[in-house]
Amino acid sequence: MTGPPAPDPGDEHDGRVVARSLEHPELFARLYDRYAPDIHRYAARRLGGHAADDVTADTFLTAFRVRARYDVSRASARPWLYGIAAHLIGRQRRKEVRGLRALARTGRDPVAAGWVEDTADLVADRAPLADALAALSAADRHVLLLVAWADLTYQEVAEALGIPVGTVRSRLNRARRKVRAALGADPALVGGVTEVVRL
């Protein structure tokens, strides 16, 4: 008798992976395999491809270094990793705002140009949005983009940024209101943050 089959490592919840990685550091690579592409896409959307490479690498390096502080009762490390990425992006706030202002001014989006064939119409729609995003405070922009581009729930955003859910709601409401006003959109006509912000 050989015993029960070994659990599929893909099914093992993240808290257990982090806990086991304390004795077997190589296991932390499972989190990288699960989440690195998503973290990279999010960072690329905010800072561009080259900076996204650095942010992604730094996110996982930081997570690895502080993994002993991770609450292993949490089944998903996704909010934790997005929180680290958002913090790293926040350090590059000026670069992000410069990129958004350049998009608003020139209509050229180097991020979209890499994966969209004809960006002319797309960019024409993005310029006012980029200007509106650049005008937001870093805290409001983090919340708005974690919801819109990373598809995090309010609870996950709260975990990622270490703030109460009520603060997430108020920042998101304020950010939506400011973006809608900047775009000249009637709030009754704009469905949700995805329609307003997803680029």
UniProtKB/TrEMBL annotation:
InterPro entries tied to this protein: RNA_pol_sigma-70-like, RNA_pol_sigma-70_dom, RNA_pol_sigma70_r2, RNA_pol_sigma70_r4_t2, RNA_pol_sigma_r2, RNA_pol_sigma_r3/r4-like, Tscrpt_reg_LuxR_C, WH-like_DNA-bd_sf
Cell cycle in keyword set: no
Membrane among keywords: no
Domain HTH luxR-type: 133-191
Keywords tagged on the record: DNA-directed RNA polymerase, Sigma factor, Transcription, Transcription regulation
Record's GO cellular component terms: DNA-directed RNA polymerase complex
GO BP annotations, alphabetical order: DNA-templated transcription initiation
Cross-referenced Pfam families: Sigma70_r2 (PF04542), Sigma70_r4_2 (PF08281)
GO MF, one annotated term: DNA binding
Family that this chain belongs to: Belongs to the sigma-70 factor family. ECF subfamily.
Protein name per Swiss-Prot or TrEMBL: DNA-directed RNA polymerase sigma-70 factor
Lineage: Bacteria, Bacillati, Actinomycetota, Actinomycetes, Kitasatosporales
